[in-house]
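Justification of computing resources. Each target in the renewal requires a structure prediction run like the one illustrated here; the chain below, 224 residues long, is used simply to show the kind of job we budget for.
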Amino acid sequence: MIRLANVTKRFPGPRPRTVLHDISLDIPRGELVAILGESGSGKSTLLNLIAGLERADSGSVVVAGVEVGQLGDDALTAFRRTNIGFVFQAFHVLPYLTVVQNVALPLALLGQQGEAATQRVEALLTAVGLADRAASMPRELSGGEMQRVAIARALVHRPAIVLADEPTGNLDPDSASGVIGLLREQLHAEGATGVLVTHSRAAAARADRVYVLTATGLAEATVE
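Resulting structure tokens:
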């Protein structure tokens, strides 16, 4: 589902910096893979390359059968909207929309409305344990609940890929463990592929596979 082959990413400037060097990675359909690394290791850059938010200087990034580096800006936007769901550390739940409206937003952007869309949103809210919070505003939710909203929103349009960037960074340990477990459970239920980048070994340990990213490269690891 995701294949990176000999990917290198550099940032130019007065002090040019190579963040990723000759990185290769294969992630099959249906797995949640964690990329573990310290701040500045390049893990968020790796996620951005998969999403097509940044372009590699060399190598190839193939996502759901598409070489994202060869798409133009409009095609990339359309590709992301259809094929990728995002979960962020800061939740990015819109404060002026209810829970149900936040979750329904990706469907609205794709022009999907009506009874089928309503049923899909309701099903996801039930799956993440928020059916009774559908009419709530984000200010009424805990951090763990807001991240559950973000997971439902990331999955509602049935994307092939879900990308999670430090999704437990603003949560207490108990909430963090629950969120990663829920994310893994829902990815498996939906048949979607997930990539989680984190500095938390506890969060990474809930994934199906774990890789550690350092200045010397990317290596599979066992984390407990």
